[in-house]
Design goal:
2 copies of one chain form a homodimer. Chain A has 143 residues and is mainly alpha-helical. Chain A has 6 helices and 3 strands. Chains A and B meet through helix 1, helix 5 and helix 6 of A and helix 1, helix 5 and helix 6 of B. The structure holds a DNA duplex (23 and 23 nucleotides).
Chain lengths: 143, 143
DNA sequence: TATTGTTATACTCTATAACTATA
DNA sequence: TATAGTTATAGAGTATAACAATA
């Protein structure tokens, strides 16, 4: 049963502040988990992206909002640790695809489990109804 | 008028995912605004913290989760740009207080205005009622 | 010509360790 | 002795510019 609908209004300064605070809290959790696995936040994101697909360097850079030269270094370090592999793109001779190794997959899965476990409590006090509403609201903040 | 209360439940994977996505989106906005003012995200945070108070190096480091040596470099660069000042703490001869200069204040205010302006649209579609509920929910994710 | 990716270079961010000064 | 802060050092993350290979 939804609340009484009200007119859309200008967001309060408190809400924006809350959004920022919540973002920093979430990032702190992610950064801590990354560090516990000897990864940077960016590397953790890369592993997350590659978990279910294999993408080209440029796609990765675009998605993360980084320069391709930055990706080269990032992937080089991950590769040196045996977490990812570079494979030639089958249809474009210039492109390089990146994918997780078995070790990378295992690490990505372990980290993802930790993330879910650590962030879950922060929303565990919410009722199912509130969770749906929060997810819906956050979804609108994303697009 | 609140919704029909329901029992607290385990947060869905989607909600956790949404929290993470929303955090990355928010951080991207903040990072972009910081860069537009030639600041790093951390420097922007420092300006934000110092906006309404003057704190010691260690407090700053603790709040940001950084080492004090990291703070020394960070503050040194901000000071070189004329954004902050180091002043001796009046009651503890070992401590150093940091505070914004007039230029730093102006920059902090301009950045804060931009942050509010850019994040507001993401929540503008929500009704006042929904905004209150989102703020409340986010607040609970923070503690 | 335009795109994909790498390399060279430089600067910021970050931590660890060693140090000075004050409590 | 313990705490506050700085400096020296080193490594990761980042961008810009120049480059090679492919489209």
């Amino acid at each position: 049963m939804p609340s009484q609908p009200t007119e859309p209004t200008q967001p309060s300064a408190e809400l924006v502040d809350m959004l920022v605070q919540s973002a920093f809290t979430t990032m702190a959790v992610l950064t801590r988990i990354a560090a516990a696995h000897d990864l940077s936040l960016t590397q953790l994101r890369v592993l997350g992206i590659l978990r279910d697909r294999q993408v080209r360097m440029t796609e990765l850079a675009d998605y993360l909002g980084l320069e391709k030269s930055t990706m080269s270094g990032l992937i080089a370090r991950a590769q040196a640790r045996g977490l990812v592999q570079r494979v030639p793109n089958p249809t474009d001779g210039r492109a390089v695809d990146v994918r997780l190794t078995a070790v990378g997959h295992e690490l990505a899965n372990r980290a993802a489990t930790r993330v879910a476990a650590e962030l879950a409590p922060s929303t565990a006090g919410l009722s199912a109804n509130e969770q749906r509403r929060l997810a819906g609201a956050l979804h609108r903040t994303i697009s």
